[in-house]
Amino acid sequence: MTIAASYAQFSAREAHGVSPAYKRLALAVSRDDELLARLETLPPAKRQPNLLFGVVRLLGGPVEDPAAFHDYALANWSAIEPEMRTRSTQTNEAGRCAVLLPVLAALPQPLALLEVGASAGLCLYPDRYAYRYGEHLLGAGEPVLDCVATGMTPPDRRPEVVWRAGLDLNPLDVTDPADLAWLEALIWPEHAHRRTRLRAAAAVAAADPPLLVRGDLVDDLPALAAQAPADATLVVFHTSVLYLVPPPRREAFAEVVRGLPGHWIANEAPEVLRYDALPELPGDAHYNVLALDGTPLAWTRGHGQAINWFG
C-alpha cells in the first residue's frame, strides 16, 4: 500500500466517527505531495499517521487545521523527522481492558499477566479499574472504562492478578513527565475523556509499578514468561501491537507464544493475524479481532469503546 493510500484508509476507517480532526488531517496528507515526499524518506514502520500526528502535537504544532499543519510540518521537518525516527506509537489505552475483561475473568484464577508491547503497562491493571457496560457497573474508583457490549452478558467479576509484567522495545515510565507527555500526545485531539483516563490509570500504575522489561517479543518472551509464578495462570496478551511487527516476526512470535504454558489473548486488526473464518464486520469503522489461543471471539473497537461478541 502506498503512503497516500494508508493515510486515506486511516481517514476513512480509523478516524471516521472517532476524530473529525484526524479524519480531515489524514485525508489532506494523503493528497499532499510535499509531505508525502518527506514521509517517503522515513523507514516504512515510521510513516504511519498516529506517529506523525503525535510528534507534531508533542512539539506543539497544530493538528486541527490541515493548511496550518502543512505549513508547520514543512517548516519544522528538521525537528519532526528525528522524533519520528526514534519514537514509536506506544498508545497505552487503558480502555482496552474493557474488551479484554470478559476473557480474563473467565480464565482459571489467579492470573499472571504478561503484556507484549506494554508501553507503560497501563493495560496490566484490569483488576484495579472500574467498568461500565451500558447500565452494568463493575468495580469502583477511577478510571471508569465505558464499553458498549453486544451479543454477550457483561462479566460480573474482575480477575485476580498476582503477577504483572510487560515486554517492550522501549518501556515508558508514567512517573517520568517526558514519557507521560508522549502518551498524552498520542491521544487524539477531541478525546479529553481519554486524557483524563490516562492520568487516572497512570496514578494506579505509579502506586504499584509493574515489572517492565526492555526486550524483543520473540527473543525475550520465554525468559520473562518463566518468571511468572507457577501457581497462577499465565496469560500473554497484546492489543494493537503486531501491526508494527514485520510479518515474519509475527509468525515467529505466534510460534513462541503457542509453546508457552497458559493462554494467549490477541486483540489485533483482522489483517494482522489470519483466522480461517470471521463473521461480517458490524460496521465500516476500524475493528480489531479479539481471540483466545487462536480462536476468534469478538470484534472490538480500537480504544476499547465497544465489543461485539460472536464466539
Question: What does it look like?
Answer:
The chain is α/β, with parallel strands linked by helices and 311 residues long. The protein has two domains: 84 residues, no CATH class; 216 residues, Rossmann fold (3-Layer(aba) Sandwich), CATH 3.40.50. Helix content is 36%, strand content 20%. A nine-stranded mixed sheet has the order 5-12-11-10-9-8-1-6-7. Strands 3-2-4 form a three-stranded mixed sheet, with no helix packed on it. Helix 1 runs antiparallel to helix 2, helix 2 packs across helix 5 and helix 4 packs across helix 8. The longest helix has 16 residues.
Brief overview:
The chain has 11 helices and 12 strands. The protein is of the alpha/beta class and about 300 residues long. The model has no long low-confidence stretch (mean pLDDT about 95).
Features:
311 residues; Rossmann fold; 2 domains; 12 strands; globular
Structural class of the secondary elements? alpha/beta
Helix tally? 11
Regions with little confidence, pLDDT below 50 for 5+ residues = none
Shape: globular
Q: Would you state the CATH class of the largest domain?
A: Alpha Beta
* Strand arrangement across the biggest beta sheet: 5-12-11-10-9-8-1-6-7
Second-tier CATH architecture of the largest domain? 3-Layer(aba) Sandwich
Helix content: 25-40%
Task: Please indicate the count of domains.
Answer: 2
Count of β-strands: 12
